Every structure is written in structure tokens, then in C-alpha cells.
Amino acid sequence: MIYCRDKIESISDLDGRKVRVHSATLGDFVEGAGGVTVTLPFAEVVPALEKGVADCAITDPVSAFKASWHEVINHVFALPVGYSITFTAVNAKLWDGLDEATRNAMQTAFDEMEASGWKIAESEQAMGVGCLTGTVDECTMGTVGDAELHQPRESDTAARQAILDNFVLKRWAARCGADCVETWNASAGDAAGFTAPSPES
Known about the structure:
The chain has 201 residues and is an alpha/beta fold. The protein has one domain (2-152): D-Maltodextrin-Binding Protein, domain 2 (3-Layer(aba) Sandwich). The chain is 49% helix and 10% strand. The protein has helices at residues 24-32, 45-51, 61-66, 92-96, 100-133, 154-176, 178-186, 188-192, and strands spanning 2-4, 18-21, 36-39, 56-58, 75-77, 148-150. Helix 1 (24-32) links the parallel strand 2 (18-21) and strand 3 (36-39). The longest helix has 34 residues, at 100-133. The chain is globular, with a radius of gyration of 20 Å. The two termini are 31 Å apart.
């Protein structure tokens, strides 16, 4: 999500602001919104916000709270703009060598773990936002902050999608290359419902 010193009520408010990011794709998102990217190690974000080196910063709510961002930011814009990836992989030769009952038991366990993971992520996200803004009945992570909470509107969701299509995916495709894009579109892109353009287009 996005955390700023000055009020941010929509994606358009990022225009002209210096925003700390931690990846190239987040940088593409910020630039697509008209902002200026600032790449900093996580430990340097608080002093950067204090000194005006950055106007805003992006991370997950729990990390922001635990790093005391609520002491230097005044506004939380609760629009998710990225997730970390977690996955479990099993060697295909090993998997194929297991009997059907074992594979079924493991698949059931994986499915349950995935469902549990999503529930935990949603719960922690809500707690992080609540602790940053003081909008939770009880903050389980420490003393609550008093940043103002701003919820995204449908127009922000649409703007986020436009930035993804017109900036993030295009720039990522150029870095990835044609073969990589073809593989991604047939796998992760297909699963997510997105299509990255050919780097030549």
C-alpha cells in the first residue's frame, strides 16, 4: 500500500511526488502515475521521509507499522499495488514417483495451506492498517498510530489497471524479452488473467 506525509486520496495524487519503491515494477507503477521513484533500503525509509528525500513510500502495512512509519507519515492510501510471491515446488520426477494416495494427501495439505495463507494475509493486512491509523479496536503489534486512512474508489481501481496495462506490463516485457513473455503469458499471465505485450509491439 501507499503511505505519505501529505494527503493522498487517489492515485492521481502521486503526480510529482517522490515515492520510495523496492522493485523495478513498483517503480514503473509510480512513474505511470506521474510520480518520481526513489530507491532506498528499507532501513533508510524513515529518515528519508523525515528529511523530505521521499514524500511517500510503498510496503505492506505490517512492515510499515513494525518499522515505525506511522511516526513519520500522516496518510495511508489502502490500495494494494503489489504482493510478494510465495510458492511450494516439488520435483516432478519425485512427484510422479509417489503413489496416488500420497499425492492426493499432499495436494490436500497444499490446498489447505494456501487457503490458510490467504486468510492470514488478509487478517494481518487489516491489523497493519488498523494499527497505523488507530482504526482497530485493539492493535496486537504495539501502540497505534494516528495516520488518516483513505480508501480507494472505483476510479482508482480502474487507474491502477490502466497503469498495469500501459506501463508496468510493457516495461516488464521489454526487460524480459520475447521468449520470456511468451512463456509468462502461457503460464502465470494466463492464471492471473493478464497478457504482457510482445516487446516488439
